[in-house]
Predict the structure.
Amino acid sequence: MSKLRFDGKTVVVTGAGRGLGHAHTVMFAARGANVVVNDLAGADQAAEGISATGAQAVADGHDISTPEGAAGLARTAFDAFGSVDVLVNNAGVGRFAPFAEEKQADFDLIMKVNVAGIYHVTRAFWPHFVARGQGRVVNTTSPAGMLGNAGQAAYSMSKGAIYALTRSLAVEGAEHNISVSAIAPGAFTDMAAQSLTGHDATLARLREEMPSELVSPVVLYLAHETSPASGITLDAGGGRVGAFFTGSTLGIVDRALTPEVVAARWDEIIDRTGYEVLPDGNSLIALRRPAKD
Ligand SMILES: NC(=O)c1ccc[n+]([C@@H]2O[C@H](COP(=O)([O-])OP(=O)(O)OC[C@H]3O[C@@H](n4cnc5c(N)ncnc54)[C@H](O)[C@@H]3O)[C@@H](O)[C@H]2O)c1
């Protein structure tokens, strides 16, 4: 198979001053892309490091959590390279505590950066992708957002929102040839160290086996023009790649439904035999029709 390259393509990565975002930009640049390295801190140094390899990189220091910051990032990218092919929404914050002890200020920050930020940034580039009839967006959710984790309620909630955004924009973007996918990564970074305080064995495993560089290949594939992916969330970490999917069981349909029917038929309702993987929310309507004899 020929090497997947990005020559002449422009890739914007948020939160790329360190950690996963930094690893993504390094790999994109090594494969020919022009990269826009956004971060609140460390963007200049990261972009200089990439430029030193002979690749085209510009730094952007906007705060992506506001509409103005997102617009500023788009301006940096268009001023430097004229157009954008790929947006990688990677910037995120984590604050971790048992549910009852979560602080209001932490909840507010998580929602502002992880939820509002990705919304503003994607909207800043979306009209450009629609006008060009092409674009690829790779979002960053989390295993916590897909599956839940104790002690991470606000963070998981924000990452669940990113999954929902990915699904909806993939459906909406299809007619414009815009692909929208996501990763749920696992890698040893500053944030991972923070989230795993007290879990020394897991943290040690992460440090030894899960460098950010083993997540970036998944991002590059989702971002590549030859990838058929859209609407999918890949689980990526330590070289493992899997695909999450949302299904529903075949369930029951009873037009005289009562709570007692739900109780009596519980085992049938949760039986996964012959489950359906649905392309979007509206397609549930078909499943809700009574079966015809
Ligand atoms: N490391 C993991 O195992 C893991 C697991 C699940 C999800 N994630 C997600 O991966 C992404 C990258 O995380 P990481 O592990 O590399 O963490 P990290 O903390 O090392 O990097 C995140 C970067 O985002 C930047 N950032 C934060 N707020 C910003 C803002 N308002 N504007 C611009 N930049 C901002 C930070 O300055 C930081 O450099 C995050 O979305 C995180 O939630 C990471």
